[in-house]
Amino acid sequence: QKCIEILIFYAAAQKQAEPAVLQPTPQPKDDFQEELVVRPLHSGDIYASFQFRTLWETDFMRGNKVSHYRLFPKSLGQVISKFSVRELHISFTQGYWRTMQWGQPYLPSPPGAELWVWFQDSVTDVDATWKELTNVLSGIFCASLNFIDSTNTVQPSASFKPLGIGNVTDHRFLRYATLPREIVCTENLTPWKKLLPCGSKAGLAVLLKSEKLFHSSFHSQAVHIRPVCQDWQCKTTSWELRQTLNVVFDLHNSGQGKREWSLFKMFSRTLTEACPLASSSKIYIDITDNPEGEQFELSPATSLLSQAMVLGDRRTFSVYDLTQQDTFGSPVSLLSVAGDMLRPLLHAERYVAGYGLQTGEIHTLMYNHHPYRSFPVLLLDSVPWYLRLYIHTLTVTSKGKDNKPSYIHYQPSKDRVRPHLLEMLVQLPPNSVTEVTVQFERALLKWTEYTPDPNHGFYVGSSVISSLVPSTVAMDTNSTRERPLFSSFFPCKEESSYFVRVYTEPLLVNLPTPDFSMPYNVICLTCTVVAVGYGSLYNLLTRSFQIEEPSPGLAKRIANVIRKMRGVPPL
């Protein structure tokens, strides 16, 4: 009996010593979609908009460390986790979007670089986190974002609401900055393409050839990260990474007098396969203005059509599904006559007036082209500190009458510390032009604060105008995965209006500039005086003089030779 107890005890000990079988941890689900929208513009140009969306069911906000990355890029995931980022929006744009010629873009962006970030409420020092984040993003995207500091960063109080879940947020955790002089080139496009799951090896990213993209009228690439709802009830959330690239190509003329375009002519490449990791890969061709095929024809033809509410209008698209093998073959459009374009309901311009290098005036024009409806707009203007605004000269006029803003937030600048921040809520009357003017005085910078080309001028970032514009059709308020990507970026909560963000032109302002050639002239003159004057004196003081006897004449030298031959001492 004692032996049996020992065996039972030994068996129990062996059972406890066996390693426990680990249950597999469920990995977060992720999904990748890609699409290309091609829209023939009424000016004859071609507008191509790429959108790549990666959804990941994970939670960075609770401080959970994620070590396994499949489709979501690890570099951006670590940035979100380390810096407690709630939303991140960054864009690099070359050129200016001509609203009156091309209409409204799907995703607007200002010239240069733009960055605005919402931080979580757990961040204690937002300014220090913002500075470190800009340095990290500068390395990721190979850009000059490290030049973002307190002198060009603002904290808006009403603009740039979160585009993800949770719209009620303390604006102390928001930072916004622009670099209007940032040059966009291949060095920025290459790291942007590496963030895609398939890179530029398969799918729509194959068309992204830098030689063609940068040889265009307009080019803009952006990255947007935000938390979104998985369903309409918002029971589960996920992180959305949306990479967008918008480009406008010039008109392609053929030798037969017809205007034609194709994917190969625009990008010098053709599609061969969809991205294997993409659950959806589609090409949309806007045929709203071509219902009967009178203006252009598509080849190969497709019977798959789709309608979407885009920017307050119902648009019809021909859809090419790249997951189907019979789709491949470049869609070609033969354009004939361009029709009349409906004017955008909201448009804005800005310019600098005045003469001399002491004072000036900034004019901002906001156009409401709606024939009978007025709507409010929110204007944000960030002006550098070296343009000292006279805020008492601020005037807002519409149709020759004063238009008093219902909300004004102004933060004065501090020299070499922070810029001016002006936000206003203005009601635009129907079919009117509202003009906002403010006078300023130019400051004199230190000679070390000027750029290498100071006579070129100093850039001032674009003004930002946000508004809910009345819609001509009922907008779709259901945010589902079945909607096209280009129509689901800005959340729509009302059927009667849609959100629009408009950027004005950046300003180029001349400042009082000293004559930088004068120090060069002084240096040259000083060096000449030192070399000629002091050099000669130093040579005279340090040279050693020796007396040399004159050489004998020819007769004396001949006599000395003869005397030497005779053995007689020389003369």
Question: What's the short version?
Answer:
The protein is 18% helix and 33% strand. The protein has 571 residues and is α+β, with helices and mostly antiparallel strands.
If you had to describe this structure to a student in words, what would you say it looks like?
This is Phosphatidylinositol glycan anchor biosynthesis, class T. InterPro entries: PIG-T. One of its GO terms (biological process) is attachment of GPI anchor to protein. It comes from Amphiprion ocellaris (Clown anemonefish). The protein has 571 residues and is of the alpha+beta class. It is built from 9 helices and 26 strands. An 11-stranded mixed sheet has the order 5-6-4-3-7-8-2-1-10-13-12, with helices on one face. A 5-stranded antiparallel sheet has the order 15-16-22-18-19, with no helix packed on it. The protein has a 5-stranded antiparallel sheet with strand order 20-21-17-24-25, with no helix packed on it. Mean pLDDT is 83; it is low at 1-25, 253-257 and 333-337.
Order of neighbouring strands in the sheet with most strands: 5-6-4-3-7-8-2-1-10-13-12
User: What percentage of the residues does DSSP assign to strands (E)?
Assistant: 25-35%
Helices and strands: which structural class? alpha+beta
What would the average pLDDT be, to the nearest integer? 83
**What is the number of domains?**
3
Q: Total strand count, please?
A: 26
The portion of residues assigned to helices is 10-25%
Distance between the termini: 143 Å
GO cellular component, one term: GPI-anchor transamidase complex
InterPro entries: PIG-T
Protein name: Phosphatidylinositol glycan anchor biosynthesis, class T
Organism: Amphiprion ocellaris (Clown anemonefish)
